[in-house]
Amino acid sequence: MNFTLHNLVKLACQTGFVTAFGFCLMLPVTAQPMLGTENGEWRYLGGNVGHTRYSPLDQINRENFEDLEIAWIFHSDNFG
């Protein structure tokens, strides 16, 4: 294949662009707070769109954790 100076410059620019784009994809993404668990309401299955299962509620803490009791149990053996 016959490379001219123009073709080499074009190839170098394309390679540089692809490399730079690849490095941009590897940059860490900062976590953005996801909406969905305001006031304890889980509007999605996992709490929010990202399925993080996180709620900022503070009613349960180290002092009252031992006082928790089981409220309900789901028996899956009823389904086979």
UniProtKB/TrEMBL annotation:
Domain Pyrrolo-quinoline quinone repeat: 42-78
InterPro entries named among the record's database cross-references: PQQ_rpt_dom, Quinoprotein_ADH-like_sf
Signal peptide: none
Name of protein: Pyrrolo-quinoline quinone repeat domain-containing protein
Organism: marine metagenome
Lineage: unclassified sequences, metagenomes, ecological metagenomes
